[in-house]
Protein backbone atom coordinates (compact mmCIF):
# COMPACT_ATOMS: atom_id res chain seq x y z
CA UNK A 1 0.00 0.00 0.00
CA UNK A 2 2.64 2.48 1.11
CA UNK A 3 4.87 1.24 -1.68
CA UNK A 4 2.10 2.00 -4.19
CA UNK A 5 1.68 5.42 -2.67
CA UNK A 6 5.35 6.24 -2.93
CA UNK A 7 5.41 5.17 -6.56
CA UNK A 8 2.49 7.48 -7.24
CA UNK A 9 4.23 10.21 -5.27
CA UNK A 10 7.47 9.74 -7.22
CA UNK A 11 5.55 9.84 -10.49
CA UNK A 12 3.84 13.01 -9.41
CA UNK A 13 7.18 14.58 -8.51
CA UNK A 14 8.62 13.57 -11.85
CA UNK A 15 5.74 15.00 -13.83
CA UNK A 16 5.81 18.16 -11.74
CA UNK A 17 9.52 18.53 -12.44
CA UNK A 18 8.82 18.02 -16.13
CA UNK A 19 6.10 20.67 -16.06
CA UNK A 20 8.41 23.04 -14.25
CA UNK A 21 11.18 22.57 -16.82
CA UNK A 22 8.68 23.04 -19.62
CA UNK A 23 7.40 26.18 -18.01
CA UNK A 24 10.90 27.62 -17.72
CA UNK A 25 11.76 26.56 -21.25
CA UNK A 26 8.63 28.01 -22.76
CA UNK A 27 9.25 31.20 -20.78
CA UNK A 28 12.75 31.58 -22.22
CA UNK A 29 11.42 30.61 -25.64
CA UNK A 30 9.01 33.50 -25.42
CA UNK A 31 11.65 35.92 -24.17
CA UNK A 32 14.10 35.12 -26.94
CA UNK A 33 11.64 35.22 -29.82
CA UNK A 34 9.14 37.76 -28.59
CA UNK A 35 5.36 37.39 -28.65
CA UNK A 36 4.93 37.88 -32.42
CA UNK A 37 7.34 35.12 -33.43
CA UNK A 38 5.68 32.81 -30.92
CA UNK A 39 2.44 33.11 -32.87
CA UNK A 40 4.04 32.15 -36.19
CA UNK A 41 1.85 29.38 -37.63
CA UNK A 42 3.26 25.87 -37.55
CA UNK A 43 1.75 23.02 -39.57
CA UNK A 44 0.89 19.96 -37.46
CA UNK A 45 1.01 16.54 -39.12
CA UNK A 46 -0.36 13.32 -37.75
CA UNK A 47 2.10 10.45 -37.27
CA UNK A 48 0.95 9.36 -40.75
CA UNK A 49 2.15 12.71 -42.22
CA UNK A 50 -1.45 13.75 -42.84
CA UNK A 51 -1.81 17.49 -42.16
CA UNK A 52 -4.29 17.89 -39.32
CA UNK A 53 -3.98 21.34 -37.85
CA UNK A 54 -2.10 24.58 -37.48
CA UNK A 55 -0.88 25.85 -34.15
CA UNK A 56 1.22 28.74 -32.94
CA UNK A 57 5.01 28.34 -32.68
CA UNK A 58 4.87 28.46 -28.90
CA UNK A 59 2.52 25.48 -28.68
CA UNK A 60 4.57 23.62 -31.31
CA UNK A 61 7.77 24.12 -29.30
CA UNK A 62 6.06 22.87 -26.15
CA UNK A 63 4.87 19.74 -28.00
CA UNK A 64 8.40 19.10 -29.24
CA UNK A 65 9.91 19.70 -25.78
CA UNK A 66 7.35 17.35 -24.25
CA UNK A 67 8.33 14.64 -26.72
CA UNK A 68 4.81 14.51 -28.18
CA UNK A 69 5.91 15.75 -31.59
CA UNK A 70 9.05 15.97 -33.65
CA UNK A 71 10.18 18.79 -35.91
CA UNK A 72 9.94 17.83 -39.58
CA UNK A 73 10.83 21.19 -41.11
CA UNK A 74 12.78 23.96 -39.45
CA UNK A 75 12.84 27.68 -39.93
CA UNK A 76 16.14 29.39 -40.50
CA UNK A 77 16.74 30.32 -36.93
CA UNK A 78 17.27 28.50 -33.67
CA UNK A 79 16.63 29.23 -30.08
CA UNK A 80 19.75 29.25 -27.90
CA UNK A 81 18.78 29.39 -24.27
CA UNK A 82 20.27 28.02 -21.06
CA UNK A 83 20.69 24.32 -21.86
CA UNK A 84 18.75 24.01 -25.08
CA UNK A 85 19.45 24.66 -28.71
CA UNK A 86 16.14 24.36 -30.44
CA UNK A 87 15.41 25.13 -34.07
CA UNK A 88 12.18 27.05 -34.62
CA UNK A 89 9.78 24.57 -36.25
CA UNK A 90 7.83 25.22 -39.43
CA UNK A 91 6.25 21.75 -39.59
CA UNK A 92 5.93 19.28 -36.70
CA UNK A 93 4.67 15.70 -36.65
CA UNK A 94 2.94 13.90 -33.79
CA UNK A 95 4.86 10.80 -32.73
CA UNK A 96 1.71 8.85 -31.94
CA UNK A 97 -1.17 8.58 -34.40
CA UNK A 98 -4.28 10.38 -33.21
CA UNK A 99 -7.78 9.98 -34.49
CA UNK A 100 -8.92 13.50 -35.27
CA UNK A 101 -12.54 14.18 -36.10
CA UNK A 102 -12.53 16.57 -39.05
CA UNK A 103 -15.19 18.78 -37.52
CA UNK A 104 -12.89 20.05 -34.81
CA UNK A 105 -11.63 23.18 -36.50
CA UNK A 106 -12.96 26.15 -34.60
CA UNK A 107 -15.60 28.27 -36.16
CA UNK A 108 -14.03 31.71 -36.15
CA UNK A 109 -14.15 34.95 -38.06
CA UNK A 110 -10.63 34.28 -39.33
CA UNK A 111 -11.53 30.80 -40.63
CA UNK A 112 -14.71 31.98 -42.35
CA UNK A 113 -12.74 34.74 -44.10
CA UNK A 114 -10.10 32.21 -45.14
CA UNK A 115 -12.75 29.82 -46.50
CA UNK A 116 -14.26 32.68 -48.50
CA UNK A 117 -10.81 33.91 -49.64
CA UNK A 118 -11.44 37.38 -48.20
CA UNK A 119 -14.14 37.84 -50.83
CA UNK A 120 -17.54 39.42 -50.15
CA UNK A 121 -19.91 36.58 -50.97
CA UNK A 122 -22.51 39.01 -52.35
CA UNK A 123 -20.64 41.47 -54.61
CA UNK A 124 -17.38 39.54 -55.05
CA UNK A 125 -15.05 42.31 -53.94
CA UNK A 126 -11.75 41.11 -52.41
CA UNK A 127 -10.72 43.11 -49.35
CA UNK A 128 -8.24 42.98 -46.48
CA UNK A 129 -9.57 40.98 -43.53
CA UNK A 130 -9.96 44.17 -41.48
CA UNK A 131 -12.31 45.63 -44.08
CA UNK A 132 -14.64 42.65 -44.14
CA UNK A 133 -17.34 41.65 -41.74
CA UNK A 134 -19.30 38.45 -41.25
CA UNK A 135 -22.89 38.22 -42.40
CA UNK A 136 -25.47 35.80 -41.06
CA UNK A 137 -27.27 34.67 -44.26
CA UNK A 138 -30.38 34.01 -42.17
CA UNK A 139 -30.17 36.95 -39.75
CA UNK A 140 -29.78 36.19 -36.08
CA UNK A 141 -32.99 38.15 -35.44
CA UNK A 142 -34.78 35.58 -37.62
CA UNK A 143 -33.28 32.62 -35.81
CA UNK A 144 -30.13 32.26 -37.94
CA UNK A 145 -27.31 30.37 -36.25
CA UNK A 146 -23.59 31.07 -36.17
CA UNK A 147 -22.52 28.07 -38.24
CA UNK A 148 -20.24 27.43 -41.21
CA UNK A 149 -23.37 27.16 -43.39
CA UNK A 150 -24.89 30.44 -42.21
CA UNK A 151 -21.88 32.76 -42.04
CA UNK A 152 -20.21 34.42 -45.02
CA UNK A 153 -17.55 37.06 -45.58
CA UNK A 154 -19.26 40.33 -46.44
CA UNK A 155 -18.21 43.90 -47.25
CA UNK A 156 -19.70 46.68 -45.15
CA UNK A 157 -21.75 48.05 -48.06
CA UNK A 158 -23.46 44.71 -48.72
CA UNK A 159 -23.88 44.15 -44.99
CA UNK A 160 -25.76 47.47 -44.68
CA UNK A 161 -27.86 46.65 -47.73
CA UNK A 162 -28.80 43.28 -46.30
CA UNK A 163 -29.64 44.48 -42.80
CA UNK A 164 -32.11 42.10 -41.17
CA UNK A 165 -33.63 40.89 -44.42
CA UNK A 166 -33.83 37.37 -45.74
CA UNK A 167 -32.23 36.92 -49.17
CA UNK A 168 -35.54 36.19 -50.89
CA UNK A 169 -36.76 39.61 -49.74
CA UNK A 170 -34.02 41.40 -51.65
CA UNK A 171 -33.77 41.64 -55.42
CA UNK A 172 -30.27 43.06 -55.83
CA UNK A 173 -28.38 40.90 -53.36
CA UNK A 174 -27.62 37.25 -54.03
CA UNK A 175 -25.05 34.84 -52.71
CA UNK A 176 -22.38 34.03 -55.28
CA UNK A 177 -22.31 30.49 -53.91
CA UNK A 178 -23.73 28.53 -51.02
CA UNK A 179 -21.55 28.74 -47.91
CA UNK A 180 -19.78 25.42 -47.53
CA UNK A 181 -20.09 23.41 -44.35
CA UNK A 182 -16.82 22.52 -42.73
CA UNK A 183 -15.17 19.53 -44.39
CA UNK A 184 -11.78 18.02 -45.02
CA UNK A 185 -11.69 20.16 -48.16
CA UNK A 186 -12.29 23.35 -46.13
CA UNK A 187 -9.63 22.30 -43.67
CA UNK A 188 -6.99 21.76 -46.41
CA UNK A 189 -8.00 24.99 -48.11
CA UNK A 190 -7.56 26.97 -44.87
CA UNK A 191 -4.19 25.33 -44.19
CA UNK A 192 -3.03 26.19 -47.72
CA UNK A 193 -4.16 29.81 -47.34
CA UNK A 194 -2.31 30.18 -44.03
CA UNK A 195 0.74 28.29 -45.33
CA UNK A 196 0.97 30.01 -48.71
CA UNK A 197 3.93 32.10 -47.54
CA UNK A 198 5.89 29.11 -46.21
CA UNK A 199 7.31 26.93 -49.00
CA UNK A 200 8.20 24.20 -46.48
CA UNK A 201 4.49 23.36 -46.07
CA UNK A 202 3.89 22.69 -49.77
CA UNK A 203 4.90 19.05 -49.98
CA UNK A 204 2.55 18.16 -47.11
CA UNK A 205 -0.47 20.11 -48.36
CA UNK A 206 -0.32 19.55 -52.13
CA UNK A 207 -0.28 16.00 -53.29
ZN1 LIG B 1 -20.11 43.26 -50.98
- Overall radius of gyration: 22 Å
Structural class: alpha+beta
The overall number of domains is 2
Overall pLDDT level: 81
Count the DSSP helices. 6
- Cα(first) to Cα(last) distance is 56 Å
* Stretches with pLDDT under 50, minimum 5 residues: 1-28
What proportion of the residues is helical, as a percent range? 25-40%
Work out the strand percent.
15-25%
What ligands does this structure carry?
zinc ion
Overall morphology: elongated
Tell how many strands the DSSP assignment holds: 6
The helix/strand series, from N terminus to C terminus, equals HEEHEEHEEHHH
Name the strands of the widest sheet in spatial order. 2-1-4-3
The major beta sheet can be summarized as:
4 strands, mixed
Give an overview in words.
- This protein has 207 residues and is of the alpha+beta class.
- The protein folds into 2 domains: 3-100, no CATH class; 102-198, DNA Binding (I), subunit A.
- It contains 6 helices and 6 strands.
- The protein has helices at residues 2-37, 57-66, 109-115, 156-162, 184-195, 202-205; strands at residues 41-45, 51-56, 69-81, 84-94, 132-136, 151-155.
- The strands form 2 sheets. Strands 2-1-4-3 form a 4-stranded mixed β-sheet. The chain has a two-stranded antiparallel ribbon with strand order 5-6.
- α1 (2-37) packs antiparallel against α2.
- It is elongated, with a radius of gyration of 22 Å.
- Mean pLDDT is 81; it is low at 1-28.
- It binds zinc ion.
- Zinc ion binds next to α4.
Amino acid sequence: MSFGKSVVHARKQKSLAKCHTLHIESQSVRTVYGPVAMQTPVLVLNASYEPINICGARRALVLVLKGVATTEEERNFSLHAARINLPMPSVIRLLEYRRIPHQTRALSRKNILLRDRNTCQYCGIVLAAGELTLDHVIPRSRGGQSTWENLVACCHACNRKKGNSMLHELVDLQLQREPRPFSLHTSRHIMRMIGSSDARWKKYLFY
